[in-house]
Amino acid sequence: MEQNRKYVIFRSLPLERDSRTKRYKDYLGDVVFNCWEDNYVDKRNGIDKIKMGRKDFRLFITYPFYLFYLFVFSVLKLNKNTHAICMDIDTYIPIKIGSLFGRSKVYLDIVDPISQTKFRHAYFNVIFDYIEYFILKNSNNVILPGESRVKYYHDKINVNISSINRYYICENVPVLSKDYCRFKKEFNIDKKVIGYFGSLDSTRGILELISYFKDKNDFIIYIAGRGELESAITDLSNENENVYFYGSYDSTQLGFLYSNIDFCWAFYSPDVFLHRYACPNKYYEHLAFKTPIIFNEIVPMSNLVEANNSGLIISDVINEDTFRKLEDKLNSFNINVSDFSLWESSYSNYSFSLK
Q1: Who's near 93: CB < 8 A, 6+ residues apart?
Q2: pLDDT at 50
Q3: Is residue 136 exposed (0-12), middle (13-18) or buried (19+ Cβ within 10 Å)?
Q4: pTM score, two decimals?
């Protein structure tokens, strides 16, 4: 831990919705979170009085006001003894401009290229890719979740990345208690249990997974998370005895959730450009909980899964034939030859620090 420095972590999302943001507390020690919550019910002092909640009004009002708040905060509160870590470029720009007055060191954590997330529907959103590329090329203070994210800029905007080598890598490794595996059960023989824990959106193949396996008595589907598909998955769980939906969860419940499954579903749609450069939490989780993962070919880490037999790799196109082949692989999978040792050798004591 960085015991001698104070860090303020900024994210334009509620703190409880982002495990990557929260991990900085474990890595850096003296950390203050300044995240954008949905609402604020507590009495606030000073400049925090001008901080609107995300859902207080329409987003076109609250979002610009929030960015203005970040600028004011950085001018008045940041100094050379306080470093800022900005999660994504929307917090970085106002903080960086405001910090020039107090000479605070500002880091940009490109959690995801913002043109592929918050501004994916914006006209000319490619401008954000060029801005991120410029910062990545010219600053020493950029943090990425994986090496594959550098290649994103080459493939997306056709720029030269050969000279980009000055950045930090902070992988999406979950911070787990020492007893994280105490729940782990024996591999299921009679019924295979496939679980998906994460964002419930239509690009993760969740409904397709349920549709294929819901009527097969030798398979069970466990789902947990939040997102656009919550209502549809709730209905499917009520209608099918082989489908279970547990709702939202937090990181402290991961051990229990993984203890109830035999395989972890982790499909990433090739129709989403960013998925080609995914750095999934689930990759590290499957190693920690010794649970075989189901990846598709497009995910950069699929080659490691295949090399260590720590899961199964399916086609990027999910259809009846894909699931039929997957079913055969699930029934013949031999966990006894799986190698999950990368967790112990590389990640169980994972640490991250900044200069």
Answers
A1: 67
A2: 82
A3: buried
A4: 0.91
